[in-house]
Design goal:
This protein has 183 residues and is α/β, with parallel strands linked by helices. The protein is built from seven helices and nine strands; from the N terminus they run E-H-E-H-E-E-H-E-H-E-E-H-H-H-E-E. The strands form three sheets. Strands 1-3-5-6-7 form a five-stranded mixed β-sheet. The longest helix is centred in the middle third of the chain and has 18 residues, at 87-104.
């Protein structure tokens, strides 16, 4: 499912190119949440920010963070990917995610379709090993625990824990067969 945020904002009578305030974030979240109720298990929700220049921390907290939390607790697992994020929006999202992760002691991360300022395809506080695995998966398109062990040189129990963590953050897609795919 792809949602063009500028188009959705126009439908909701929200002025663009800047999405600011907690109120706007709540309105956008409520509208998108209604659409997500019909999402298929394992499907990726792509939020396309083309034409949006700035999104502030309040908006991010009310829309993006809530959608990510929903993706982890919904009856159907779904994934979120951001597309066409401006540099300013990326910086703000990263700050909100890092603050949330520190405050709640629980990492929050989102995969991006476009390369970010830090030369990776995600926003959020991943460890070096988690970052390497996400990038390795993006390049290789599918991997299993043995592939990651060979790539990282880490023991199986450590690799399994890393993959469980990445899966719970919705940074990778895990099949029942134990094969992982990019979001």
């Amino acid at each position: 499912m792809v949602i063009t945020i500028k188009k959705k904002a126009e439908e909701l009578k929200i002025k663009t190119p800047d999405l600011i305030t907690r109120h706007m974030g709540r309105i956008m979240y409520d509208s998108i949440r209604d659409l997500v109720e019909n999402i298929s298990d394992g499907e990726t929700l792509v939020l396309d920010f083309d034409g949006i220049k700035v999104i502030d921390s309040s908006f991010i907290d009310e829309m993006i963070v809530k959608l990510i939390l929903d993706s982890k607790t919904a009856s159907r697992a779904f994934y979120i990917k951001l597309k066409n994020i401006s540099a300013i929006a990326e910086t703000n999202i990263d700050l909100v995610f890092r603050s949330y992760s520190n405050y709640k002691n629980k990492k929050i991360v989102v995969i991006t379709e476009n390369i970010c300022q830090n030369n990776v395809f995600f926003i959020g506080p991943l460890s070096d090993q988690e970052r390497d695995v996400v990038e390795f998966l993006r390049v290789n398109r599918s991997i299993n625990i043995d592939d990651i062990m060979k790539f990282t040189g880490r023991p199986k129990d450590e690799v399994k824990k890393t993959m469980e963590d990445l899966d719970s953050m919705r940074a990778v897609k895990r099949q029942e067969s134990g094969v992982y795919f990019p979001v």
